[in-house]
Amino acid sequence: MITNRYIHPTIELCTKCQGEGIIIVYPAWDMLNQYGEAAECPTCEGSGRVVVSKKIEVTVSPFKNKII
């Protein structure tokens, strides 16, 4: 028997910007990371939070104990 269970959407921190809402973009020639520019995070669109939906699938089967 397989049971599907859905969890309600939750609000979590954006993993790309760590909840800041901005990311620092460095030019390819800048090896010391001195000339970075702040840009809005494309994943969370600057809010620092994202809505996450999860689906959990649970399989339940009987235990059959074999006695030797």
Report on this model:
With 68 residues, this protein is mainly beta. The protein has no helices and 4 strands. The strands form 2 sheets. A two-stranded antiparallel sheet has the order 1-4. It has a two-stranded antiparallel sheet with strand order 2-3. The protein is elongated, with a radius of gyration of 22 Å. The mean pLDDT is 86.
Fraction in beta strands: over 45%
Radius of gyration: 22 Å
Helix amount: under 10%
Structural class: mainly beta
Cα-to-Cα separation, first versus last residue = 27 Å
The residue-averaged pLDDT reads 86
SS summary, helix count = 0
Stretches where pLDDT is under 50 for at least 5 consecutive residues are none
**What composes the largest sheet?**
2 strands, antiparallel
Order of helices and strands: EEEE
Counting DSSP E segments of at least 2 residues, the number of strands comes to 4
Give the overall form.
elongated
Strand order of the largest sheet: 1-4
